[in-house]
Amino acid sequence: CTLPPQLAAACERYKDFYLSSHNGRRLSWLTCMGSADLRATFGETGETKRELNVSTYQMCILLLFNDADTMSYKDIALATTIPADDLKRSLQSLACVKGRNVLRKEPMSKEVNDDDVFVFNDKFTSKLLKVKIGTVSAQRESEPEKHETRQRIEDDRKPQIEAAIVRIMKARRQLDHNGVVQEVTKQLSSRFSPNPTDIKKHLENLIEREFIERDRNDRKLYIYLA
C-alpha cells in the first residue's frame, strides 16, 4: 500500500541506512502484517483522547482524516492503494463494529460498497484509554480467491524466508541442507511454519544470485559467499 508521507519519509531514511550497511540486499515492507499505535482526539474541542492500536492498513486510512473530515471509499482506495478486499475489511472494522467505530459510514450497513462515504466520528467514546481495533474476518473465499490469497501469502513470506537463510548462513558460514531447514524453521516459528519445499526453492534462488554455493564435494553442504 501507499504509506502516509510522514511514515514514508522515515522508511526511506531507514532503507538508505540499511542498504548502505548491507551490500547486495533488498528491503521490503510487509504492510499487510504490521500494526501501529495512534493518538486520537475526539469531541468538538478535542477533550477526549484515546490511543488506538490498529493494523498498518487501518493506520493509513485514519491518517487521511487529519486533512479531511469526510472521504469517499474511492478516494480512500486511491490514496492508500490497499487491495480492495483488505480495504473493505479494514473500513468495516473502523466503521461497523460497535465500540470500535471511530469512523461513520454513510449509508450505514454491515457491508462496504464502492459508493460509500466515511466520516470521522468525533463523538466516539470508550471507557478504555487504549482501544484495540481488530480486523473483521474475511468471508468464505471462492477457489480463485483462495489461490490468489495463497499466492499473496507466499509472496509476503518469500523475503522473510530468504532473509532468515542469509542470516543463518552469514553466522554459520557453512551448513548442510537439513541444518538450514531446521534453523530457518526455528527462526520463523513465531510468525509461521515454513514449508521445507519452499526453503529449498529459496536456497536455489540464493545460489543463482550468488549469496551461497554448494560444496564441490558434498552437494548437501552450503557455503556462504556474500
Task: Describe it.
The chain has 226 residues and is α+β, with helices and mostly antiparallel strands. The protein is 45% helix and 18% strand. It has seven helices and nine strands. The protein has helices spanning 5-21, 56-64, 73-80, 84-95, 143-172, 177-188, 196-208, and strands at residues 35-42, 48-55, 70-72, 103-106, 117-120, 130-132, 174-176, 212-214, 221-224. It has a three-stranded mixed beta sheet with strand order 1-2-6. It has a three-stranded antiparallel beta sheet with strand order 3-5-4. A three-stranded antiparallel beta sheet has the order 7-9-8. Strand 1 (35-42) and strand 2 (48-55) form a beta hairpin. Helix 5 crosses helix 6 (177-188) and helix 5 (143-172) crosses helix 7. The protein is elongated and about 75 Å long. The two termini are 31 Å apart. The model has no long low-confidence stretch (mean pLDDT 89).
Summarize the structure.
The chain is an alpha+beta fold and 226 residues long. It is 45% helix and 18% strand. 19% of the residues are buried.
Write the layout of secondary structure elements.
Elements: H1 5-21, E1 35-42, E2 48-55, H2 56-64, E3 70-72, H3 73-80, H4 84-95, E4 103-106, E5 117-120, E6 130-132, H5 143-172, E7 174-176, H6 177-188, H7 196-208, E8 212-214, E9 221-224
Parallel strand pairs: 2-6
Antiparallel strand pairs: 1-2, 3-5, 4-5, 7-9, 8-9
Helix pairs in contact: 5-6, 5-7
Topology, number of strands: 9
SSE-based structural type? alpha+beta
Oligomerization state: single chain
The mean pLDDT is: 89
- Main sheet strand line-up: 1-2-6
Alpha carbon gyration radius? 22 Å
Poorly predicted runs: none
Shape descriptor: elongated
User: What distance lies between the first and last C-alpha atoms, to the nearest angstrom?
Assistant: 31 Å
